Amino acid sequence: MPVIQKDDRVVLQHPKGASAEILYYGATVISWKSPSATGSQPTERLFVSGKAALDGSKPVRGGIPVVFPAFGTPTHPDHAKLPQHGFARNNVWTFTSTVMDNEAGVSVKLSLVPTEAIRAQFDHPFHLEYVVTLAEHQLTTDLHVQHTGLSTTPPFEFQALFHNYIRAPANEVHITPLTGVSYYDKTEPTEQARATPKVENRESVDVQKYTDFVYENAPGKYNITWPSGAIEIRAKNLKDVVIWNPQQETGSKIADMEEGGWYVEHVMTEN
Ligand SMILES: O=P(O)(O)OC[C@H]1O[C@H](O)[C@H](O)[C@@H](O)[C@@H]1O
């Protein structure tokens, strides 16, 4: 049975060896293993901190947490009651259905609707559906956001982001193509400097020092390469991309980050 529903997660198994695990808590993909194009044994592609809580007590430090409806510290007045990165990553989602189950892909759908606790923070009629599809060499994550109110119900503003923690030797990776793209540098110490856009002039971006850059209107297709591997990320309808690596400087202050976890690189796609 390639889709196995367990108490706290669903496990996807592809006939060609790939697998994925999705926690119902946060709909967080906590494992994605796939063979490489040259046919190696399936390898873990995501980083999950050894200190991450997987029991629903706090968002998972690793994998692919879903960020919705606000990225970072909320700035929109409508988001004022939300925690950092919103509520999607720390609520329990419902398994809805198996969408597909064959060699082309193993795909499941999870959903999240407003609860009392969510309404207290974000009082809007929404329905989220999250479809995760596992192919032999590819993992696809699709978030569908629906406004379920009447046509007279006011619209709501949201941001969405897949907080991918990519497993790679962070000090050796190169990320392209971001040359000429403007970005906000969240590592700057002052509000004014953080709000002043910079332009990326490097041919390839690295994360050898503490990096927290929000690239705007980015190309949507990114190559992350290192001497012994590579991964390609394609984003659709997600116009921005965030590259974050806390390095020792800030990683050592994150309670649930394992020692040295920052040697693994993190790239996220945002809208
Ligand atoms: O600790 P978290 O709430 O999971 O956030 C982890 C990180 O997420 C994003 O990458 C932000 O750009 C960072 O500023 C933040 O530190």
UniProtKB/TrEMBL annotation:
It comes from the Eukaryota. GO terms for biological process: carbohydrate metabolic process. One of its GO terms (cellular component) is cytoplasm. InterPro entries: Aldose_1/G6P_1-epimerase, G6P_1-epimerase, Gal_mutarotase_sf_dom, GH-type_carb-bd. Signal peptide: none annotated. Keywords: Isomerase. It catalyses: alpha-D-glucose 6-phosphate = beta-D-glucose 6-phosphate. Gene3D superfamilies: 2.70.98.10. Substrate binds at residues 61, 84, 89. It holds the Pfam family Aldose_epim. The keyword Transferase does not apply. One of its GO terms (molecular function) is glucose-6-phosphate 1-epimerase activity. Its EC number is 5.1.3.15. Belongs to the glucose-6-phosphate 1-epimerase family. Catalyzes the interconversion between the alpha and beta anomers from at least three hexose 6-phosphate sugars (Glc6P, Gal6P, and Man6P). This is Glucose-6-phosphate 1-epimerase.
